[in-house]
Automatic annotation (TrEMBL):
Domain Tyrosine specific protein phosphatases: 71-132
Active site positions: C96 (phosphocysteine intermediate)
Keyword entries, A-Z: Hydrolase, Protein phosphatase
Protein source organism: Oidiodendron maius (strain Zn)
Transferase as UniProt keyword: no
Entry keyword Nucleotide-binding: no
Record-given protein name: protein-tyrosine-phosphatase
GO molecular function list: protein tyrosine phosphatase activity; protein tyrosine/serine/threonine phosphatase activity
PROSITE patterns: TYR_PHOSPHATASE_2 (PS50056), TYR_PHOSPHATASE_DUAL (PS50054)
A single Gene Ontology CC term: nucleus
Gene3D superfamilies recorded: Protein tyrosine phosphatase superfamily
Amino acid sequence: MALSRVPGDDELFIGGIFTLRRKTTLAEAGITHVLSVVKFNFQSIADWDKYEHLGIEVDDVEDENLLGEFERTGAWIEKALREGKDGKKGKVLVHCAMGKSRSVTVAIAYLLRQYPHHTVSSALELIRESRPIAEPNDGFIAQLELYKKMGCPPDIENHPQYRRWIFQKEVDLAVAVGQGPSRVRFEDEEKQEENETSKREVELRCRKCRRTLAKTPYIVDHLPAPAKSSPSSTDGPISSLAPALPPTPIHSACFHHFLQPLSWMRPALREGLLQGRLECPNSKCRAQLGRYAWQGLKCSCGVWVCPAFSVQKSRADEVVKRKEGNNGPAIGTMNPDGRGGIRLPPGMKGRENL
């Protein structure tokens, strides 16, 4: 299986490194452009100068970053197919070592970019119609899924989800050697993508001094899913670096709020330790609120959050705000037992909560 044409209107082919030595096969297919997704010295290939060439030097390993190349390769393939050579439309060969993982990944990324109706699964199945051995590694499949979720943007490197993904890779590498990452991506200092709207907004405040700690976009929804007969995505760790979901009702089994990394945590996180304490950012308060652990923490509800930036519910009040238009604005404070109430300023007589 030296050369396989991807079914469809595009003259797009997938092959392995040895395909380049089959001159008759390439000539019969009319190949004009070659996209190489492999580290290789092409000077030994005869008549190599006759092809337009783009090289992407990556290894076929799960932690290799191909995602950052998808716009570059997709735009190159699109232009090659449209403009071609000598006034004729081009025919593009995408190859790696075996024509199984890297080249297939790049071809799928092109299909996702050009044809929005495709999913990662449907694009892979289309390629397998002519190339049954197509099998990107799990890391590349995850990158393709993220690319699709991002909307296949032209500016990948500045997309919030891509930058968050890169930071997660840095965190994983640092944790593997037993230390905190050398830099921290604070979510409240980064551009945020739009999330689902919700009628319920939450604000966490230090119980001692009332200083605001976090609001809805930066609170990690980590509630376990209802019991199912089949495994769910909550079976593994939940990332605190993922976009926050609309807030859910209070979960009595959880003794902690988990947050995304926020700028008020900078004094603690810049020390580069694997784990430590989180204190109130109010210099006149400095109450201990919880702890952080780059390697993750297990909540009392049984869910792992990784990395974890945890604030104890007993140290913070949860102020629930209802958006305007939902029968008028409403503000209330939820106590650890789930009862609503208004917290009086320190020093006032009477009961603390009404």
